[in-house]
Amino acid sequence: MSDKKPINDAMDHMSKIEGYPTNVDLKKLPKPLRYFGYFMIGFFSFAILFILIAKLFT
């Protein structure tokens, strides 16, 4: 369990029931998943950059 104290009893109960990832090391993900993540981040970055440049010239 994390060292963080819950805000209230309901949040403590939800975190115990649902759980949530803590201290995730992204470098330990499988290679295909990691590469897919890199591709998506790169794609969206270039798409936003392209849209901004296109808006400047129109």
Helix content: 55-70%
| Shape category | elongated
Structural class per helix/strand content? mainly alpha
Alpha carbon gap, first and last residue: 53 Å
How does the major sheet shape up?
Answer: none
Strand content: under 5%
Count every beta strand, where a strand is a DSSP E run of 2 or more residues: 0
Low-confidence stretches: none
Count of helical regions: 2
How do the helices and strands line up, and which of them pair or pack?
Elements: H1 9-18, H2 31-56
What does this structure look like?
The protein has 58 residues and is mainly alpha-helical. It has a domain at 25-58. The protein is built from 2 helices and no strands. The longest helix has 26 residues, at 31-56. The termini are far apart.
Task: Characterize this entry briefly.
The chain is mainly α and 58 residues long. Helix content is 62%, strand content 0%.
Keywords summarizing the entry:
58 residues, 2 helices, elongated, mainly alpha, single chain
